[in-house]
Amino acid sequence: MLSEPERLNYLIKMLEGGNAKAFADKTGIIPSTVSRIRAGKLRLNSKVDTILKAYPTVSRTWLETGEGAPGDISIQFVTEKYDALLQQKEQQIQLLLKELELQQKIIEKLTNDQ
């Protein structure tokens, strides 16, 4: 059975790709509170309702006790999260490629002008 910090870490990994800030933003839990729960310094039970409001498919029993399954954290849900993350990264790559092309043109121009 997973401890409270382990359960929270599992949710953050599965639901937000390991991004604790995204988890905090979606749940409305202060990031320092998320950190304190992850460190075992604050009880997870104090935020169960808040987490379930943001992620209603998570099992209350599992979240509170660690018994049973984490709920419907289905492969489709996880796949959608990772697809969105991959799309965001692809957009960042495209922006960097454009910046690189611009820098290359500047270098070529400076080289040709000499």
How many helices?
A: 6
N-to-C span: 69 Å
Quaternary organisation: single chain
> Which sheet architecture does the biggest sheet show?
none
Unreliable stretches, pLDDT < 50, 5 or more residues?
A: none
Which class of secondary structure composition applies to the elements? mainly alpha
The percentage helix is over 70%
Overall description:
The protein is an all-alpha fold and 114 residues long. It has six helices and no strands. It has helices at 4-16, 20-27, 31-38, 48-54, 60-65, 75-113. The protein starts with a helix and ends with a helix.
Short description:
Helix content is 71%, strand content 0%. The chain has 114 residues and is mainly α.
List the SSEs and their pairings:
Blueprint: H1 4-16, H2 20-27, H3 31-38, H4 48-54, H5 60-65, H6 75-113
Keywords:
114 residues, mainly alpha, 6 helices, 71% helix
